[in-house]
Amino acid sequence: MGKGIAYVSSLAGFDTVIMDVDEKMADRSYGDIKKLFDKGVGRNKISMTDREDALGRLRVSVSYEEAIKDCDLVIEAVPEVAEIKRAVHEAVSEKAMSHTIFASNTSTMSPTEIASYGNRPESSIAMHFFNPVHRMPLVEIVRGLETSDATVTEVEAVAKKMGKETVVVNEFPGFVTSRMSCLIGNEAFHMLQEGLGTPADIDKAVRLGLNHPMGPFELVDLVGLDARLNNMKELHSKLGERFRPAPLLEKYVKAGRLGKKSGRGIYDYSE
Predict the structure, then answer these.
(1) Which run of H or of E encompasses 17?
(2) Of the listed 89, 99, 128, 190, which one is catalytic?
(3) Which residues contact 261 (CB under 8 A, 6 or more apart)?
(4) Which end of the chain has fewer CB atoms surrounding its CB within 10 Å, N or C?
């Protein structure tokens, strides 16, 4: 998600820093973004000039202080784990300028709770991008309890400059899209463990019968089964039994079948 956000940010004309605590991961992210630009040029989606200009606005860092010191907007895209988000937000609160906006690319967690990890609740908000970021047109903007109107307006403007449509919603667990997506995906796992159909047939039925761009298993393999399980646990704790993770989802995660990133999830990507 971070790579995709950096791609659309730099392409939109923003000076962009990819920050990761692991130097190898930061460098690999930069290389992956270059490949995205190359594909865009190859498919005539962007020009070579656009590619060169965007890459000129993009750099990597492994230092919070160096990465954040001049940033007007920080978009965090770390896993949906409170301890990790707390560490990032505390670092941002300490290193960023007083006017810097902090946006969390969370899909289920409370922006009010995340804001409480730092010292600028009025400048904290959720920007929920969708995967793959460079193709999906929506950013779901979620305001916390103390998010200011000025922060909402600024973040909407940034998203629109990135070429995105926006919706602004008030905080509630799962927002709009994650609640719906998690329910559909979880039900697909129940169908699979009940023997209702193969993953390919369930995906095909949802794509062609409900006109979804991807089937639920294709989507969870892209997002990551571990990420989906974390989302389900968060929603289950807040919204009750209808969000209890399907046992088969938990079993796949325990087996290390996390989706495309691990080479195998519902489908096998080893080749």
Answers:
(1) strand 16-19
(2) 128
(3) 224
(4) C
Q: How far apart are CA 224 and CA 257, in angstroms?
A: 9
CB 85 within 8 A of CB 78: yes
- Identify the pLDDT of residue 140: 95
- Please give the pLDDT value at position 100: 93
**Does the pLDDT at position 12 exceed 80?**
yes
Residue 89 is a catalytic residue: no
- Taking only Cα atoms into account, the Rg of the chain, rounded to an integer number of angstroms, comes to 19
**What's the CA gap between 178 and 162, in Å, rounded?**
22
> Which residues have a Cβ under 8 Å from the Cβ of 264 and sit 6 or more positions away?
256, 257, 258, 270
Q: What is the pLDDT of residues 55-71, one digit of tens each?
A: 999 999 988 888 888 89
Mean predicted confidence (pLDDT) in 226-244? 92
Judged against a pLDDT cut of 80, whether residue 271 lies above it is answered with no
Given the DSSP bridges, would you call strands 58-61 and 73-76 parallel, antiparallel or unpaired? unpaired
- The token duo for 222 is 């892209």
Query: 170: which strand partners?
Result: 143
Q: How many Å apart are CA 96 and CA 74, to the nearest integer? A: 9
